[in-house]
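Q: Second attempt. The first request was missing the SMILES, so the protein and adenosine-5'-triphosphate are both included now.
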Amino acid sequence: MTISIRSVQKTFGRFPALNDVSLEIAPGELLALLGPSGSGKTTLLRAIAGLEYPDSGQILFETEDVTYAGAARRGVGFVFQQYALFKHMTVAKNVAFGLDVRKGAAKPSKTEIAARVDELLKLVELGDLGKRFPSQLSGGQRQRVALARALAVSPRVLLLDEPFGALDATVRKSLRKELRRIHDATGVTTIFVTHDQEEALELADRVAILNQGQIEQVGTPSEVHDNPANPFVCGFVGEANRFEGAVRDGRFVSGGVTLAAPGLADGPAVGFVRPYDIALDGKGFEVRVERVGIDGAVAHVDLVTPQGERLEAQVSREQGRSLAAGAALHAESRQAHIYSL
Ligand SMILES: Nc1ncnc2c1ncn2[C@@H]1O[C@H](COP(=O)(O)OP(=O)(O)OP(=O)(O)O)[C@@H](O)[C@H]1O
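A: Got both inputs this time. The predicted holo structure:
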């Protein structure tokens, strides 16, 4: 189902939580809403769910205007960060809940419900745990149950608000892959809120980056990472060294750091270089190695220019091992992102 968000505005008191937000989500797409705390992600998700109403603007499901429709009418499945499972019900009963509460002809038979619960528990790989209670599950398992429960009613759209936020890093990573697999198996249009850029880039088909109630950029993970539209996106998506300086004659200069800035007009600018876009192979501006930290297959090298600018390069483990603190080198960026101010 296509979801269209058109010029949505939402103010709490005098604070604009959403400021003229427009966004189109394609059928079957997995879209991440990414942004820092307070940027409006949850407010936008709640407006799509029908748990919050915009002050102005429109939300369409296909051609149906649902801007002021109640949550129940929209056919959305919702998963929150906090496990909202019913503690006194078994896993199977939790998953069945949305079907059990249906009335009259809309309610499937007992056998149908049991079959659907079985199918969903298999899908989230909890096939054997239907008889357990939520208190007998790990945090990751509870979120799988929450996901199965949200999917039970065959929602038109699945909305997830930081669903893995309360879990540890390893469980988060594996559930991320699970969610992608489940999404691919069900094909349900999914919107996923996160403040974790790695999670958004790894999981989503497209990422919408929010900042102070506005959308800064929408694009595929590669587009927002490789071609960030503005300094905010560049600093927020992927790691980056940031320098303030000026462009003169096609070069950006910030103290001892120089970067190629072809085609940019002379004047004040801000430049970003990703640590893995810095080459330490004898060319470029002068730097001194302050520290080398080996982290698995890569090495993080802290560098300082003679004028005092600090930057980090990421090189191979082998190259990192060959570098000693105090060594004088030359650094060159393979790719930089420079924005006129
Ligand atoms: N019910 C409310 N009443 C007043 N202000 C609110 C309300 N809900 C949200 N806000 C404010 O609106 C802004 C956006 O909040 P929102 O929860 O959408 O941000 P978020 O990007 O989801 O943040 P987080 O990642 O911290 O959850 C925040 O400044 C928040 O304080």
